[in-house]
Amino acid sequence: MASNLQLVRPPLSMRERLIVALDVDDLAAAKAAIKLLAGQVGMFKVGKQLFTHAGPQAVTLIHDLGGEVFLDLKFHDIPTTVAKAAIAATRLGVKMFNVHASGSLEMMRLTVREVNRVCRQESLRRPILLAVTVLTSLNETDLKHLGITGEVGDQVVRLARLSQDAGMDGVVAAPHEVAEIRATCGRGFMIVTPGIRPEKTSHDDQKRVMTPAEAVRAGVDYIVVGRPIMEAKEPARAAREIIDEMEHSGAKIIV
Ligand code: C5P
Question: Which is the closest atom of ligand 1 to the Cα of 195?
Fold first, then answer.
């Protein structure tokens, strides 16, 4: 029998768990990709590249073509400013967006509180609130230069716990960080993972990668895939193959 938890948050299909990074220069390129992929994938990730060029029109375009949006702008500022940006993102109707966990407990708490308030008052859909822990471009030496000693993994877990304490819904994490975050923060805490490469495809500039099947077996909730789909000869087919790989991973996702 289904538990109450499952009734509240029904399990997502593997298609819904696939987020495509729409790392393109302009709306025309975005439109071409969305037309090929809307309905075939779970979400489109709009990052700083497209948003700086096209602004909220990028979000509207995806919505108009029937897609959902992960707004990947990684807000990091004083608490009031981030909370106000978060309200603006919520009013755009995005499905998820993110902030930097290193912005502080207070910054994340205020963001959660303000997003909840505005959703209640304006009857808006509550977006999923994610925190970025440590960028995967940073290594132990970089952290040391910032005055943070110790291993990168420890800092990742520390910030994941802080995000959870602040009421955030989950984190964006590199594939090799998933197991420890899952062990520390539990099953209900969401993990979104880039750095995914299907078997036999180029790693591009991603160093520590996992295949889609390995990622779902490791317990991620969503995977972010860019170039293996966007640069494929047939993007919809590449997406379908990734979903197939996730479906045949043998992973049993409970929530
Ligand atoms: O093309 P590729 O699959 O590598 O794209 C991954 C996407 O995820 C890009 O938009 C990239 O900026 C983003 N990302 C990442 N690693 C992180 C955080 C975000 O690759 N740690």
Answer: 20
Write down the domain spans for the chain: 18-247
- The protein residue with its alpha carbon nearest to ligand 1, atom 10, reads 21
Q: For the domain bounded by 18-247, which CATH number is listed?
A: 3.20.20.70
Give the other-Cβ count within 10 Å of 25's Cβ.
11
Confirm or reject: Cβ of 83 under 6 Å from ligand 1: no
Per the confidence metrics, is the pTM higher than 0.70? Answer: yes
Alpha-helical regions (H) of 39-151? 48-54, 56-64, 79-92, 105-122, 140-145
- Res. 144: pLDDT tops 90: yes
Which residue puts its alpha carbon closest to atom 19 of ligand 1?
A: 194
Residue 252 catalytic? no
Helix, strand, or coil here: 24? coil
175 neighbors 210 (Cβ within 8 angstroms): yes
Catalytic residue among 31, 74, 84, 95: 74
